[in-house]
């Protein structure tokens, strides 16, 4: 009942792991595409969208701060001073 030498044990283990990795990559890519098609992200969310990284979030925050200073508006309450 031992190994007769025709099929080495190590070969089958490597093949199984390799096929499993391809299966998971395929499955995760299908899930990613379906989630991307059905999900919309809020405009204020940065870091997960193309051309809207954390750098643009900092830029927008500084711009709003400067506009609030120029127009003397408080940003927290959204009401004029």
Question: What would you note in describing this structure?
Answer:
This protein has 81 residues and is an all-alpha fold. The chain has 2 domains: 9-39; 42-81, no CATH class. It has 2 helices and no strands. The protein has helices spanning 9-38, 54-71. It is rod-shaped, with a radius of gyration of 27 Å. The termini are far apart. The relative contact order is 0.05.
* Helix/strand class: mainly alpha
Number of strands: 0
* Distance, first to last CA: 87 Å
The amount of beta strand, in percent, is under 5%
- Largest sheet properties: none
* Form type: rod-shaped
Q: Tell me the quaternary state.
A: single chain
Give the proportion of residues in helices: 55-70%
Question: Which consecutive residue ranges, at least 5 long each, have pLDDT under 50?
Answer: none
Order of helices and strands: HH
Report the total helices: 2
**Mean pLDDT across all residues, rounded?**
75
Radius of gyration (CA) equals 27 Å
Number of domains: 2
């Amino acid at each position: 009942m031992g190994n007769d030498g025709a099929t080495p044990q190590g070969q089958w283990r490597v093949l199984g792991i390799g096929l499993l990795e391809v299966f998971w990559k395929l499955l995760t890519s299908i899930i990613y595409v379906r989630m991307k098609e059905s999900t919309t992200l809020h405009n204020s969310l940065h870091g997960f969208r193309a051309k809207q990284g954390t750098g643009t979030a900092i830029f927008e925050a500084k711009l709003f701060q400067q506009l609030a200073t120029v127009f003397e508006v408080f940003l927290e309450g959204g009401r004029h001073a």
